[in-house]
Every structure is written in C-alpha cells, then in structure tokens.
Amino acid sequence: MSYDRGEDRSSRHAELPALLAQFARDMRDERRSTSNTLNGILHTAVELVDGADSGCITTLTKGERTVVAATDEMAEELCRRQYEYGEGPIASEVRHFDVVVADDLGVEHRWPQFAAGAVDQGVRSLVAFQLFSNGDDVGALVLYSNRAKAFGPDAVFTGEALAAHAAIALLGARDNEQFRAGLASRDIIGQAKGMIMERYKIDADQAFELLTKLSQQRNIPLKKVAEELVAAERP
C-alpha cells in the first residue's frame, strides 16, 4: 500500500476508512507470518500517520522485552533504551493508556534521561499506541518524528484506528503460527507413535503412554522426545 504524503490532509482523512479496510484485507488474505505482519503494520503506520518519520513495534511477554520490528537502527535503539532506562511510554505508560504523546522531547519532564537521548538522535516528538495488553502480555507501536508537536489530533485519530486493526492482524498471525506449530507437533508425535507401535507390536494408546513416560523421566517436552526418536530411526 502506498500513499502520497503531499496530498491534501482532508482528502487523506476521508480516504482513511478505505485505506484501513485495505490494510486489514492485506493482513488477512495473505496469511503472513507474524514477522511479515509486524513489518506491514509498521510500514503502514509510518506511511499513514502524519508526522511519523520512523518507528518500532515492541512486546513485553512474561518479562521478556523484545523489539519485534523497527524502521531503522535508530528507532530500534530508542525502543531498547526505554527498557534500559525504565523511562518512556513503553516502560511506564503504554500498559495503562491507549495513546501516549510527547509533543516536545526537548522539554519532556516525564522521562528526562530517555528524552535527552532521543533529542541527541534528532527525535523531537513521539506517539505510542497500545496494540494489546493482557496481564504480562503487552504490545506497543511507537512512532517518532524529527519535528516537535508533529502528532496532532488527526495523527492520533489515524494511529488509534490503525492500532485497532493492527492488533487484530497481529493476534491473528500469532494464533495462526501457534496453530501450525501445534499441527507440526502432532505430526511428529504421530510418527514416533507409529514407529513404537511397529517395533513393539503395541497399540496407539500404549505407544503414547510410553512416549509420555519417557518425557516425564527425562523432563523434556513430549515433542522433543518424539523428534529425537524419529531422527535416530531416520538419520
């Protein structure tokens, strides 16, 4: 999807529903991987949100902090710094608010250390959108601008609408990958069961029980036991 940033803002605002609908169709119809979905979300956000020059998407899952997509090294570094400093919208606010805006990082008092580092990189304002928040599972889209007060009401409106569509696309991609991983696990376990049944002349329930006992005795996942068995039998 492409958009001419020089077009009239009112025309752009009027076309927003159609652009978002196309974005949602692209995310759904192409059945992208989570990585491709994230990059698509970020590219579209920088393209559609007025004032955005760069950005990143980051997740916090069970204490693990990950920058999962970034437009460039600078944007990725700024996202990581928020975790390192314990400052910034990701570290302190986006879990509790749908949108966090910093109009001028040159005079930002909420996150002094992070703000000073961002200004040193040429970034003057930012807006962060919550993609999802569920207990320890949090996702955020952060957009940066080289201009102060770059993100006005129209930009926030666009970003909120995009974030809502993006959250659905992202969670859908994650669910699809988990489903595919589940199918792969069942397939490899099925192969291992078949090999045990053939070798020891036992039924499927007995073969599965044997695999389960091996998993418990060795304290490793059932899938791992099955993978080792299949690899040993068919090197």
Mind explaining what this structure looks like?
InterPro entries: ANTAR, CheY-like_superfamily, GAF, GAF-like_dom_sf, GAF_ANTAR, WH-like_DNA-bd_sf. One of its GO terms (molecular function) is kinase activity. This is ANTAR domain-containing protein. Residues 169-230 form the ANTAR domain. With 235 residues, the protein is of the alpha+beta class. The chain folds into 2 domains: 6-176, 2-Layer Sandwich (Beta-Lactamase); 180-233, Orthogonal Bundle (Arc Repressor Mutant, subunit A). The chain has 8 helices and 5 strands. The protein has helices at 9-29, 34-48, 73-85, 89-92, 112-120, 153-200, 204-218, 222-233; strands spanning 54-61, 64-70, 99-102, 125-134, 137-145. It has a 5-stranded antiparallel beta sheet with strand order 2-1-5-4-3, with helices on both faces. The two termini are 46 Å apart.
Compose a concise summary of this entry:
This protein is α+β, with helices and mostly antiparallel strands and 235 residues long.
- The rounded Rg comes to 23 Å
| Helix percent band | 55-70%
What is the number of strand segments? 5
User: Number of folding domains?
Assistant: 2
Any idea of the CATH topology of the largest domain?
A: Beta-Lactamase
**Which regions are unreliable across 5 or more consecutive residues at pLDDT < 50?**
1-9
Roughly what is the average pLDDT, rounded to an integer? 79
Looking at how many chains there are and whether they match, the oligomeric state comes to single chain
How much of the sequence is in beta strands?
A: 15-25%
Q: What is the rounded distance between the termini?
A: 46 Å
Structure class: alpha+beta
